[in-house]
Design a protein that fits this description.
With about 110 residues, the chain is an all-alpha fold. It has four helices and no strands. The termini are far apart.
């Protein structure tokens, strides 16, 4: 017996949010990205966080989740610490899977920053 599977349609339905919800959360993304960039230093060739600066993405995830909870559109209520741990865990799993696929030659290595 294999692992349970979820159809593409189910995943897509779960991932889609009404446009108005996304628009309400947008300022949290922008604010967190700008704040992170200012703290680590901005210059002409490097104004936004890079994909390899994964800690900013956890901060954005927490901010967006907290905003969704405050606006009553989140399915679950969690503390910022719970959200941070959950986001970091998910992101680390994805990073490890990417490293493994690159090491095994399944995907090309990422270009240097």
């Amino acid at each position: 017996m294999g692992a349970p599977t979820v159809s593409h349609e189910v995943l897509l339905a779960q991932a889609l949010k009404p446009v108005e919800e996304a628009l309400r959360l947008h300022p949290f993304y922008r604010g967190k990205l700008a704040s992170f960039a200012r703290k680590r230093g901005i210059h002409e060739q490097d104004i936004l966080p890079r994909m390899d600066e994964w800690d900013v993405h956890a901060q954005v995830a927490v901010a967006a989740a907290m905003a969704a909870q405050q606006q009553g559109i989140a399915k679950h209520s969690k503390s910022p610490d719970e959200l941070r741990v959950e986001a970091a865990t998910i992101m680390e799993r994805a990073r490890e899977a990417t490293r493994l696929m690159m090491r095994e030659g399944l995907i090309p290595a990422a270009p240097p920053p």
